[in-house]
Design a protein that fits this description.
Aspartate Aminotransferase, domain 1; 7-stranded mixed beta sheet; 4-stranded mixed beta sheet; 15 helices; 16% strand; binds pyridoxal-5'-phosphate
Amino acid sequence: MSLEHYYQTFLQNNPYPRELKNYAFDDHASSIYLNYNGKKLINFSSSDYLGLAKHPLLLARSHQYAQKLGTGSTASRLVSGNFPQYDVLEKKIAAAMGKASALILAAGYQANTSILEALFDPAILTAKPLVFCDRLCHASLLATTRFLAELKRFQHNDLSHLAELLEKYKHDTRPKFILVESIYSMDGDQVDFAKLVPLAKQHHAFLYVDDAHAVGVYGEYGQGKAAAYAADIDIIMGTFSKALGSFGAYVACSHTLRDYLINKCKGLIYSTGPSPAVLGAMDAALELIPAMHAERQRVAGYAARFRQRLDKHHLNYGHSDTHIVPWIIGDAEETIRMSLLLQEQGILGTTIRPPSVPVGKSRIRFCLSAAHSEEDMAQLFYAIENIIK
Ligand SMILES: Cc1ncc(COP(=O)(O)O)c(C=O)c1O
């Protein structure tokens, strides 16, 4: 019998089936306006938080880099796919993040899985490490970790629980790591660095921070949330795929860690470097974000007003205090129903269901963007108020 039988059985029994839908960008200068099945939608599920995905400078520089260097980087960066442009970008990233150096990788998922795999190598550490990880950390932070480390998950954003676990293992001589996100992608809440950093120091734990949803949107110059604690964070990881409008990932770290990753990180060594067009977009985004104060303020204002509206109707948004605001509905079917009703009114708010969130915590996750207009926000408020009537 073909092994497909097993996969078929899974698909038949999967309570939360996933599908790919074809959303087309509307013919518009913003990535926020989509077309789905002939209907115009305002996208409230996009990670284009600053509206850079269709910014003229990113488009122009992408084009310029592709013209000059081609459409592909043609080899791994460790073979012949490393251009001088990488060096320039990495120096800019290191300076912005307050770390000695930086490294660009092909995608955030690939960065987290392969960097952690390299860091946890028991042959290097001489022991299997103990890894303390927030319960709601992104799948990419867990994918390789769960096989390579002894994993201790602490309750989401509960640093007392983390302290308890660290205390319990304080005499354990195995290397210790702490993995967190500065902003949690499904909840829009934040880690408390002021409490976390001393804890990591006290226990000599390596601190790894995923800043994917903060870079661009936070920090005086859009450098994200972690940079303010750069001296005490071993690795700051972030992506170009969200507020920075394109694709790819970076880590900011010490020279030693960068050199180590060049030698051991399989996602870098055995993968073709990002295409030149992507490097051009990265370069333009890094140039633009320091001055995007007005956009950052606009996003924060939209999010605050959206939460006020949800409060007014006693709708649950958990502990969100950033530009990611979930409307936590609970039941998965009901969440889909609400999302379809919103769509009928021109609002795209996609559902997040298990296993991405715990059972009973299904939600519509709204992401506010500087590319949204006041009219878009008014339409969102109107649509929600309409469907809960
Ligand atoms: C916290 C976090 N880390 C990493 C990633 C992966 O980044 P990328 O989309 O660049 O692969 C995501 C994407 O959803 C994320 O939310």
